Amino acid sequence: MNIHRVPTSVDYPHTRRVEVSESHFGRQVEDPYRWLENDARRDGEVAAWVRKQDALARGYLDGLPAQPVFRRQIEELFDFTQSSVPQKRGDRYFHTLRLPGQQQARLHVREGVDGPARLLIDPNGWSEDGADAMAEWDASHDGSHVVYAVQRGGVDWREIRVLEVATGETLDDRVEWARFGAVSWAKDGTGFFYSRYPEPEPGTASQAAIANHAVYFHRLGTSQADDRLVHATPDRPDLLHIAGVTEDGQFLIVQSTPGSSMTKLSVIDLTTQDWAVRTVAGADFAAEWSAFGNDGQNLFVVTSQNAPRRRIVTFDLAQTEPQPVSLLEQDEAVLQHAWLVGGRLVTSYLVDASTQLRRHALDGTLDSKIELPGIGSAGIRGSFADDEAFIAFTSFNAPLTIYRYEVATGTLSEWAKPRLDFNLGEIAVEQHFYASKDGTKIPIFVIRRKGVQALAPTLLYGYGGYGISLTPYYEPTKLAWVAQGGTLAIANIRGGGEYGRAWHDAGRLANKQNSYDDFIAAAEFLRDAGIAKPDGIAIQGESNGGLLVGAVTNQRPELFAAALPGVGVMDLLRFHHFTGGGFWTYDFGDPREEGAFGNLLALSPYHNIASGKPYPAILVTTADADDRVVPAHSYKYAAAIQAADLGPKPRLLRVETRAGHGAGKPLDKVITEAADMWAFAARWTGLETRRP
Question: What is the span of the domain harbouring residue 508?
């Protein structure tokens, strides 16, 4: 018999305090765990501390009876073949497949739309633990080659390789130090465009400053040292540059940003010899400018200029100084994306955080709406010159299904539909609206089994940053909580993009507290509406959402039974010192400026722990190779909450190895981490689990 023993008290590892005190704008700020910012790969003391903390957490979590239950439940919900939307090149169709139990998705090619899938790239053999993954990829226009990026151990750095489709052989071409960019083939297949940073000093890659991003062209069969510099901004080292070739191969579109949604749009005519960079719009970085296709010299662009919910304009690139010409004016709904497929314009709008697809003539006239299977999230992929396209649809209770779409007739037919043994018809999805502290109406999705009564242990998830919208999608990890009888709630708080730029602005900079007020109000609504068990609310969020969880836990610790901050930004005074942290000032504010400093100090999870108050049980999760939000944030925060007088509930730190911010994480690590988190939440919310 397997008997689980959960400790009633926790003996935390000793954490050394240091006397670090700094004056900022007349305020004295203590930072006693500054030494935990050192890289554990080079600092033995930090490494030893991390090992002890993780061992403590794993020992506690392994003793929770719900842990193996959740693991089996998540495995069941992942037990289907997952396909990506295909990319058509010539007569070939390229897409990824992940079969049940595989750690990473594999790239396949089909000869014809219904031809058998032939394996091209299998990342599952790249490392023993499955932590090396295939990231960005693009097939050449004639379908003869694939350029793909290798992501090792979850880090953001990429190594780019090229595969010959006919033979399956990997070429000698190798490009290093790519990061934050796409890969895009030249029309003639002679090479590809990519974005990278300068090579960091040896041993500093994990914490190197992110500066001087640039676009390069790599010609097949040559050394990276010979790559052609296409676009760089040495006068603005803070900019990111994302480049892509138009379908007809004539233009390279470069979108530059200081880390926000505000962009500058540049165009390079690839038919010329000099590849001169021409700024088309956004030199002042005052609005979004996102090009999505062209019809000859006519460039189609989504913009937020004079349109906080976005509109579509065109630019005539034949003109010396092209000006935006309005094509689709701002709608009541939020324009999310647009595509040119089959000689038509297809748009995606958000209506109360769910997708609507609309089809238009090229002059903007509404043609029809594309009927979707239900409330969920959808997108389309196809070619302007081809009548065939593919639509992907997912929802909280529907895994990603891919439909073949005949643009001329509007006919939809299933191309790849997952098959699960689990009965997703048991899952009910509701949308509610509640009032935040200032009266603003906030949407919230509530997902639960149809047989579940009110007052259930509830997992509340949020993000609220960077204009990112939380739309319905199938996530086996979170659905496991629902399958076990819990309620899942997803709040569309301010700071996201659900209602356009105004919604984003209402939750950033000096308005950041609105996001936290919205999240707190979500928990109060779930409690007061009789949905959540009053003493059974667990909160979870990652990255900016980890910051959210840390902040509201400090502000309302009595409201939550458990808190699960993941890879969070927990020190709002020093985030700009690490890797790409400088990009985040658009949302957070700059702690080096007096006007922002006070607000950041008041919100920072690390600096506002309310010692002397009982706190919820806290499980902090991070990863040792996270080079986006460095794990030092979580280390310092965990040390601080363990040292504070916060009551008897555990405050643990779980550190995943050979993993980063989330992308590329192997399936087994995903499942194990989620099982640990939900078992911890179940222990403190009172959720009673059963074997699936």
Answer: 427-685
